[in-house]
């Protein structure tokens, strides 16, 4: 599959390489690789054909993954493949050495006694056994390193999820604090309004205490004073109401 974008011929192989590079850099799954990222890396526009090629790459990656439930970073997979390659080369060298040993064995039959030739063959077998044992150990170490890398990736994802939850909780606390501050301001305004209303009820003529102008006429009524009444009729309202807490 190919496409032409701004005179650039984009092939499926180019899209595969760009998507794999992005997956390696981002350490993400194939589904997280976006079309615009591939287009930017290839220096072309993100058209319909490019998305089809990207979808084909994702599908093939899913088939490669098979029944595996653990995401393995490309770096770990490359390391494992390199180890297998070296193991194959080592096995080929062992085969050649074994072949040489067998050839030497049969050649020695004609040159020396059977006992000496048998000793050489046993020595070669021991060397081969040691090398094979070392290869098996190396393969096991590679598998353990592969699993350890996958575990580290899972731990990183879990830490990211915990961080997201903590950030959400912090945002919730910030909103609650803002709501509490708003409620405090509303309570202060309400209290101020109550105080002003109480002040207006104490001074119905308007103005503060002592705000009676000298040229304003004031009606003063004088009534009989009951000697048993401890409250004088001409006491101010504030003097008669100490129990109100004002």
Strand order of the largest sheet: 1-2
- Classify the secondary structure makeup into a structural class: mainly alpha
Work out the number of β strands.
2
What coarse outline follows from CA principal-axis ratios?
A: elongated
Number of helices: 6
Order of helices and strands: EEHHHHHH
Runs in which pLDDT lies below 50 for 5 or more consecutive residues are 208-214, 220-225, 232-246
Average pLDDT, rounded to a whole number, is 78
Biggest sheet overview: 2 strands, antiparallel
Rg, alpha carbons: 46 Å
Determine the strand fraction and express it as a percent band: under 5%
Helix percentage range: 55-70%
Termini separation (Å)? 90 Å
Describe the protein's architecture and organization.
With 246 residues, the chain is mainly alpha-helical. It contains 6 helices and 2 strands; from the N terminus they run ββαααααα. Among the domains are: 64 residues; 88 residues. A two-stranded antiparallel sheet has the order 1-2. Helix 1 crosses helix 2, helix 1 crosses helix 3 and helix 4 packs antiparallel against helix 5.
């Amino acid at each position: 599959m190919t496409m032409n974008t701004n005179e650039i011929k984009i092939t499926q192989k180019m899209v595969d390489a760009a998507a794999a590079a992005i997956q390696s850099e981002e350490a993400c799954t194939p589904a997280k690789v976006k079309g615009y990222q591939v287009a930017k890396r290839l220096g072309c526009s993100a058209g319909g054909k490019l998305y089809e090629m990207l979808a084909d790459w994702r599908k093939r990656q899913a088939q490669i993954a098979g029944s595996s439930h653990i995401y393995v970073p490309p770096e770990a997979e490359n390391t494992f493949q390199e180890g297998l390659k070296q193991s194959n080369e080592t096995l080929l060298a062992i085969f050649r050495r074994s072949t040489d040993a067998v050839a030497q064995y049969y050649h020695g039959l004609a040159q020396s006694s059977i006992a000496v030739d048998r000793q050489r063959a046993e020595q070669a077998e021991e060397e081969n056994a040691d090398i094979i044992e070392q290869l098996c150990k190396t393969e096991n170490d590679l598998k353990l390193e592969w699993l350890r890398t996958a575990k580290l990736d899972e731990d990183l994802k879990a830490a990211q999820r915990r961080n997201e939850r903590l950030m959400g909780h912090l945002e919730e606390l910030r909103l609650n604090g803002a709501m509490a501050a708003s409620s405090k301001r509303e309570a202060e305004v309400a209290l101020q309004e109550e105080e002003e209303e109480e002040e207006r009820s104490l001074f119905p003529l308007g103005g503060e205490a002592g705000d009676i102008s000298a040229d304003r006429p004031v009606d003063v009524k004088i009534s009989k004073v009951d000697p048993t009444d401890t409250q004088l009729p001409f006491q101010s309202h504030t003097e008669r109401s100490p129990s109100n807490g004002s």
